[in-house]
Amino acid sequence: MLSLKKEDGRVLIFVYDKSLLEKVCSKKKNQEYLKTKDYEVEKGFNSILSELLFRLAHENSFPHETGLFLGYPLEDVIGFETQNAKNCVFSGFWKVYGDKQAALDLMKKYRLCTEICMSWFRQGLSVPLAAQKYKKMEEKL
After folding, report:
1. How far apart are CA 88 and CA 66, in angstroms?
2. Sign of the dihedral through C-alpha 137, 140, 102, 47
3. H-only helix segments in the chain
4. Which DSSP letter does residue 94 get?
5. Is the pLDDT of residue 55 over 80?
6. How would you label 23-60 residue by residue, b for 16+ Cβ within 10 Å and e otherwise?
7. Residue 119 contacts by C-beta under 8 Å, 6 or more apart in sequence?
8. pLDDT digits over 3-41, tens only?
9. Is the pTM above the cut of 0.90?
């Protein structure tokens, strides 16, 4: 978990699972896309993460590629960018431009994770601990 102070005084909290994010960043198609966004993927995961965090802290809006780091399908990230957020086949946690059913299934998992972790958070568990607890619970399923 990292806190990023934005230039306008706001704070953005970035919570991530390093192993999951490394997996996303290691996929060849994702790396090719990130190269088009001027990420130095050849320098490895830490370089990619540092660049993302810099952009999140210093840009007024979220960079289009942020969706990729949130686990959104690459085709939806690219579709959102190239279609200027129009002409999607479905809109939920994100705008879907590719496989609607796969996106709906993933959104269902995200919704369940959010509900469970928010319940734990309201009970006093910290965000990182709630995320760890959820990951352990998910591994058992």
Report:
1. 18
2. positive
3. 18-26, 28-36, 45-58, 66-69, 74-82, 100-122, 127-140
4. S
5. yes
6. ebbeeeebeebbeeeebebeeeeeebbebbeebbbeee
7. none
8. 776 667 778 788 888 888 999 999 999 999 999 999 999
9. no
